[in-house]
């Protein structure tokens, strides 16, 4: 995963930008760091002495006095350098500005491509903002010490792309490591995301030729010739983990790499502090009080744990935004498919409908699925006409149909649970092992939380079954039952 020879995108790591009062103090305490993904450059003490601490570099280029410092904690692997993080340099109160990074130290597409129109053109067609930013940082990495961003990239290299748990994004895991996610939809999401990155890699030359600023600055380095795919994937994952989504700015500025941002900042699912674009800077206003030395916490948006793991390499055990997805589809072989499709659309549903199961609201999610599933079970034409003429979703029908719907749903949840190679109890036992491999730990945390939600859904379904007035009724046959996955 070492990117030492190639440029890797700068992660959204604000901590990298902490100020320093003077070089002597900085040399005594390592306050600066970029956290997140792969190694970009080998950080050496001699280089640090020669080029200065990252904080000092930021201060030299316009970073005003701030109220944070960079601290470090040991890595899970003694062969790796410690993880850096942003901490309060003094006591902070709600509403205090922790730091304000000038736009001159923020990387955006407008800056990279030199033209807002080109930036919007590229990102509305074949390439994502992340791919463009990754390409730029890879080129900058190749410039070595001549690059303006060298201190920042060097710090990112030092971190080796490790997040809060010192774990890389699953996008960079081996096949055997991805097996830790067996049974979880996240495994398929990772593979799908990797395929998307490959497609973007194949379009890099287009960006290079269309972006005038890149073409002029690197006229002889055609992207796919200069950088192997694996290196681009590492760079992409690094950018993905540190990019900041700014609000109320132009499209060419909405994705930004802001030194001192996550993952140097701790993630809190219940925190509301976010990096914000203000005038000519990006600042962080804290939403809680801090004592000097406390890690600074930010919110990365309402992301489920699957996305937190793919994007940042960690799982939040107390994430109120965690959720599962259940996909239901009406049978296209059903003679009454078009009528059912019309009824579904009339009630705000699609022929292939995605239901979100939010943590703690599993019973509500199951209840929300039932009208759609009942619609799929209607087989009698006269009954279908009654449904068409009625308003609102399909209400409970015959006892046998209701039992069939609930049985299908219960079987679906049992099947999903059976797809995991371990039980919930086994997961709990593994997580008690202090020496558990970090990647296996974070994967086990994810699947454990998924199983808890699935078990809650199964229990809610069983509760609905137990509420049926007559348990002796056999389920109705369902030749065109909806498909669940």
From TrEMBL:
InterPro entries: Rubisco_LSMT_subst-bd (IPR015353), Rubisco_LSMT_subst-bd_sf (IPR036464), SET_dom_sf (IPR046341), SETD3_SETD6_MTase (IPR050600). PANTHER family: RUBISCO METHYLTRANSFERASE FAMILY PROTEIN, UNCHARACTERIZED PUTATIVE METHYLTRANSFERASE. It comes from the Eukaryota. Pfam families: Rubis-subs-bind. Residues 332-454 form the Rubisco LSMT substrate-binding domain. Signal peptide: none annotated. Gene3D superfamilies: Rubisco LSMT, substrate-binding domain, set domain protein methyltransferase, domain 1. It comes from Lupinus angustifolius (Narrow-leaved blue lupine). GO terms for biological process: methylation. Keywords: Methyltransferase, S-adenosyl-L-methionine, Transferase. One of its GO terms (cellular component) is chloroplast stroma. This is Rubisco LSMT substrate-binding domain-containing protein. One of its GO terms (molecular function) is protein-lysine N-methyltransferase activity.
């Amino acid at each position: 995963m070492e990117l030492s020879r190639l440029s890797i995108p700068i992660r959204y790591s604000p901590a990298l930008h902490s100020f320093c009062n003077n070089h002597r103090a900085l040399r005594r305490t390592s306050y600066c760091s970029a956290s997140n993904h792969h190694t970009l450059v080998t950080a050496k003490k001699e280089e640090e002495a020669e080029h200065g601490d990252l904080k000092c570099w930021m201060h030299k280029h316009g970073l005003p006095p701030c109220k944070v410092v960079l601290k470090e904690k040991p890595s899970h692997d003694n062969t790796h350098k410690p993880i850096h993080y942003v901490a309060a340099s003094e006591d902070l109160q709600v509403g205090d500005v922790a730091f304000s990074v000038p736009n001159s130290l923020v990387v955006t597409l407008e800056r990279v491509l030199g033209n807002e129109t080109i930036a919007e053109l590229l990102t509305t067609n074949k390439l994502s903002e992340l791919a463009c930013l990754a390409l730029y940082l890879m080129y900058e990495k190749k410039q070595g010490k001549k690059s303006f961003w060298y201190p920042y990239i060097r710090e990112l290299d030092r971190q080796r792309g490790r997040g809060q748990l010192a774990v890389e994004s699953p996008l960079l895991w081996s096949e055997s490591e991805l097996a830790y996610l067996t049974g979880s939809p996240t495994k398929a999401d990772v593979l799908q995301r990797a395929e998307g990155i490959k497609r973007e890699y194949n379009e890099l030359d287009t960006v290079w030729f269309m972006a005038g600023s890149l073409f002029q600055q690197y006229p002889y380095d055609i992207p796919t010739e200069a950088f192997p795919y694996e290196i681009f994937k590492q760079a992409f994952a690094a950018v993905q983990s540190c990019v900041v989504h700014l609000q109320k700015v132009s499209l060419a500025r909405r994705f930004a790499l802001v030194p001192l941002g996550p993952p140097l900042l701790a993630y809190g699912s219940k925190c509301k502090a976010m990096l914000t674009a203000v005038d000519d800077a990006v600042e962080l206003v804290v939403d809680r009080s801090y004592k000097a030395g406390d890690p600074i916490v930010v919110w990365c948006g309402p992301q489920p744990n699957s996305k937190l793991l793919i994007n940042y390499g960690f799982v939040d055990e107390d994430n109120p935004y965690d959720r599962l997805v259940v996909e239901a589809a009406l049978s296209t072989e059903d003679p009454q498919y078009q009528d059912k499709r019309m009824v579904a659309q009339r009630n705000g549903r699609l022929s292939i409908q995605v239901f979100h199961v939010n943590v703690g609201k599993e019973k509500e999610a199951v209840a929300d699925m039932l009208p759609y599933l009942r619609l799929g079970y209607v087989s009698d034409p006269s009954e279908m006409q009654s449904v068409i003429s009625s308003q609102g979703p399909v209400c409970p029908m015959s006892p046998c149909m209701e039992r069939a719907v609930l049985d299908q749903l219960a079987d679906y949840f049992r099947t999903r649970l059976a797809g995991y190679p371990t039980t919930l109890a086994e997961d709990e036992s593994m997580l008690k092992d202090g020496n558990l491999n970090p990647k296996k730990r974070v994967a086990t945390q994810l699947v454990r939380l998924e199983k808890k939600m699935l078990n809650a859904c199964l229990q809610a379904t069983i509760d609905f079954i137990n509420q049926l007035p007559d348990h002796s009724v056999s389920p109705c046959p369902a030749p065109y039952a909806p498909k669940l996955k």
